[in-house]
Design goal:
Length: about 80
């Protein structure tokens, strides 16, 4: 009786681990796909930001409610709104 319970618990544990580490990632990869990262520097390229403080070529900008350091390397398009 005890041997059957232990074997059942082991089978349930192995099945759970297989589902968690193989089935779910495969499911998300197929249905969600590979999207561009929205984090870090690469996720900020091309975004519109609000300038909080600017000094010649660098300063502080607000992007999605996060303050970041920004700099102008010749690729900034100035847009002014009144």
């Amino acid at each position: 009786m005890l041997k059957t319970i232990i074997i059942t618990i082991e089978i349930i544990f192995i099945a759970f681990e297989l589902i968690e580490h193989l089935i779910f990632p495969l499911f998300w990869f197929i249905f969600k796909g590979r999207k561009r990262s929205t984090y870090g520097v690469m996720g900020m390229i091309g975004k519109v930001v609000e300038i909080k403080r600017w000094d010649k070529i660098e300063g502080q900008v607000l992007i999605k409610l996060n303050k970041r350091r920004g700099n102008d390397r010749g690729h900034v398009l100035p847009i002014r709104s009144v």
